[in-house]
Specification:
This protein has 288 residues and is an alpha/beta fold. The chain has helices spanning 9-21, 43-48, 66-76, 94-114, 134-142, 184-193, 203-226, 235-246, 257-269; strands at 27-33, 54-59, 83-85, 122-127, 160-164, 168-172, 249-250, 254-255. 41% of the residues lie in helices and 12% in strands. The strands form 2 sheets. The protein has a 6-stranded mixed sheet with strand order 3-2-1-4-6-5, with helices on both faces. It has a two-stranded antiparallel sheet with strand order 7-8. It is elongated, with a radius of gyration of 20 Å. Keywords: Cytoplasm, GTP-binding, Nucleotide-binding.
């Protein structure tokens, strides 16, 4: 398994900004990728806001297996931290997210009112690792394009406040990874979904591992799009087969395995291979 680590300087700065602004917010929206809900969480980040009411959003539910997402929502739902599946592209789940935010803020508002303080909108902080779709979630909740969106990590570099209706103010924060992956499988999954900058890992290694991971659930799609009717134990051989099927050749009819790896990753991230969950829910009696 490839060794992957990525924690550039701007993430350390973003972590400090988050820590400074945490006292200003009432509710924290933690956004993860529904295809790997545990790997895309950041325990280090959440420790900084553990004392705040929270809502957990499993975004990109449109790319994940629906049954697995339903089970993940059930397993991750906790008192004081509801879990909601969201398709930020179509908006499915957006109403539930806002309802959960308002329920989380209600006790805070009630406490103010009891003290005779003037009510104000809920201040909400959106946090998560890079490329889980924070900005897309915000734009969906706002109903307009207010936050910069891009299918790559690191699009949001600074904090920005965005108003949602009359009663919610949302603080968009840059994506922040853990400083070090204790489990390299997490690093692999995050590289596959695009949360780690492509330039800092070997795309051949990640694409090869990804084909193995999705072979069973997406075999027919891999046969149709990549010509893979069987999976070779050698990941490089699978990428070479992709080259020949898609005509990815250099001068002299030489296969371009790097280009094939980039193609596999791109088509997976765009959902062209079908809906799949890379991190299936564990057995019901397993501790998360």
């Amino acid at each position: 398994m490839p060794v992957i680590q990525w924690f550039p300087g701007h993430m350390a700065k973003a972590r400090r900004i988050l820590q400074e602004n945490a006292p200003l917010v009432d509710v924290v929206l933690e956004i993860v990728d529904a295809r790997c809900p545990l790997a895309s969480r950041n325990p280090d980040l959440m420790r900084l806001v553990a004392h705040k009411p929270q809502v957990l959003i499993l975004n990109k539910a449109d790319l994940a297996d629906p049954a697995a997402t339903s089970e993940w929502v059930r397993r991750l739902n906790e008192p004081g931290r509801p879990a909601v599946a969201l398709d930020a592209v179509k908006g499915t789940g957006a109403r539930e997210v806002l309802a959960a935010v308002r329920r989380a803020f209600a006790p805070v508002l009630a406490a103010w009112t009891a003290k005779g303080r003037k009510p104000r909108p809920a201040r909400v902080m959106a946090v998560g690792i890079p490329n889980v779709g924070k900005s897309s979630v915000i734009n969906r909740l706002v109903g307009a394009r207010r936050a910069a969106v891009g299918d790559r990590p690191g699009v949001t570099r600074g904090k920005q406040w965005i108003r949602i209706g009359a009663d919610v103010e949302l603080l968009d924060m840059p994506g922040i990874l853990v400083p070090k992956f204790e489990d390299q499988r997490d690093g692999l999954l995050l590289a596959a979904i695009g949360s780690i900058k492509d330039e800092v890992f070997d795309r051949r290694d990640v694409a090869g591992e990804l084909l193995t991971l999705i072979w069973e659930p997406l075999g027919p799609a891999l046969a149709e799009r990549f010509g893979l009717t069987r999976l070779d134990p050698d990941p490089e051989a699978n990428l070479e087969a992709v080259c020949r099927h898609r005509g990815i050749l250099r001068a002299g009819e030489q296969v371009d395995v790097d280009a094939a790896a980039a193609l596999v990753l791109r088509e997976f991230r765009e959902g062209r291979l079908g809906r799949v969950t890379l991190q299936p829910p564990p057995p019901a009696d397993a501790k998360l």
